[in-house]
Design a protein that fits this description.
2 copies of one chain form a homodimer. Chain A is an all-alpha fold. The first copy, chain A, is built from 17 helices and 2 strands. Chain A has a single domain, classed as Farnesyl Diphosphate Synthase. Helix content of chain A is 72%, strand content 1%.
Amino acid sequence: MPTTQPITTDPPLLRRLQSLCRGAELEGLGRRLGDLANLVAPDMNAIHTAMPRLRPEASAVERSASHLIDLGGKRLRPMCVALTSRLGTGFDERARELAIAVELVHAATLLHDDVVDVGETRRGAPAARLIFGNAVSIFAGDWLLVDALRRVRRAEVEGVLDQLFDVIEEMVLAESLQLERRGRLDTTEAQWLAIVEGKTAALFRWAMYAGARAGGVDPEHCHTLERFGADLGVAFQAVDDLLDLAGDPERTGKALFADLREGKLTYPVIVSIEREPKLVPLIEQIVEAEIPDPDLCREALRLIQQTGSLDDGRRLALRHAERAKAALLALPPSRARDALSTIADATVHRPA
Amino acid sequence: MPTTQPITTDPPLLRRLQSLCRGAELEGLGRRLGDLANLVAPDMNAIHTAMPRLRPEASAVERSASHLIDLGGKRLRPMCVALTSRLGTGFDERARELAIAVELVHAATLLHDDVVDVGETRRGAPAARLIFGNAVSIFAGDWLLVDALRRVRRAEVEGVLDQLFDVIEEMVLAESLQLERRGRLDTTEAQWLAIVEGKTAALFRWAMYAGARAGGVDPEHCHTLERFGADLGVAFQAVDDLLDLAGDPERTGKALFADLREGKLTYPVIVSIEREPKLVPLIEQIVEAEIPDPDLCREALRLIQQTGSLDDGRRLALRHAERAKAALLALPPSRARDALSTIADATVHRPA
């Protein structure tokens, strides 16, 4: 049965961000998010409507994939495709298929990541692997990956399929690096950045490139937009890392310290360990415990906060967001360009 | 470091088969296998030489993939690509890349299958997941899949990439069906066939099609070759199912009853259960035991043999091999056509 989600003319993320930005200093951002929402609403609806739907006789693999996709998520990557297509000739069917593809690649990596990391919740719901099993999630990821690549192939936008192959390879090799560093408390900032550039930023980079190519944006500007995407991706991940330590677990859908217990070192933790050696035995205890002691978590969080690493993480995110925005200035002014700039600002001001 | 395997002018599978066929009635097949080996030896060397090689700084994911690929295996699918290209303009770089791609897709499915089935040996060696971990094997499968698709894309042979997307989807959905039937002793022959057509036959079908398209074989003959591939694939799997029950474990690299204990019902078991209801509780005991009782296994094997299902399995394989060979008669006579016919015969006479 085709599952239906309420189709909104105002993507939920934007509304949530808008309500958050009604505070004095962020009021300008709230207004800009309203403009962004109005600009992309029809595109996001078209994307939503054309997302894969379940066949009546759907297999476990298809149902597992749909479970994740129907939860929606932020759909930030498809939004990026829509916006960069609007920097050129506009959002059409080809851009729509590329936008769906980037979301499917993202979903495929989430399915495989949750198996690898033994993840339990995703998008505020039980992870697909808990409902359908690890085996089904592995094949569901394969299925989404192939469906994504097929859509890109059929869109026939020159260069984007080849680049997607390279980007997925980058993503996989970054996952490999992350696995090899798992639980290694001597991970450096440079290693963190190398992982993030592959794992997160590469797909943002592709989203920008794909939309721009679909819109016939000139090659030099496509290149600029790739740089924008890469910086946006790093900013996005830096904020994600902060949310793991400082975020409201209900909001972020991830349990506090989850990344750390999965052996993934977040940016603030890497920086904190460099500054406060006492953290090493403390974190080792938290990671090794069956159920982490809340007192130890609180103490670790206190030490991490004392080192100033959370502020540094936010500054890193801001720096990349600023660099992303600065790159945009090479493009002619337009509503879509402003909207991309808004996304960069909103990324670093996500609800924490 | 690039790993090297001895490059043979005579593929090991063929030599092994040849030595086996020196018996009286199979002598004709032995001679034909010699012809086949001479015909494809340069192509198989070219394929071997152009297979992915490890970079010096290779990640765990790359090393895991190479572990499996360097074990070689039968390389039957690449051989099919080489042969069908020779039905047309011949084996060239494009056919070589398609041949490598089909082997990489196959390897990707083996990596994911071994994680799903908790497989311990593969190609007579420890499964990659035992050496590098399940997580690495999942990403290694993703990596090989993307590399395969990229090679097919770059070969730029019309139609083959689109068909490969469809074939991989078929494979994944068949894996899903197999998972859903796991451990269900009421699986029917029709369900077995549906799983095998997707899981095994679809990729053989693509191998035939891809090589033929690369060789510029006319579309009608390409279609014939696809039918040949589909039948060959079913014959191949039917024999594989027999080997699980009747084969020498050292030779097949799979432990006796392994499929059954993984919950996969092989063709002879499905047929036997229909004919001998006493097998149901017996098999349930074997499957559920931590370590299966050898006496129970022997008794189950005796009952399975009594039902005549092993003979039926061999007859099924023969029937599909004969149908495959009959389809070839629509093609003009050639050495490559004879070689394909030889492969069909050799498939049902694999060492058991």
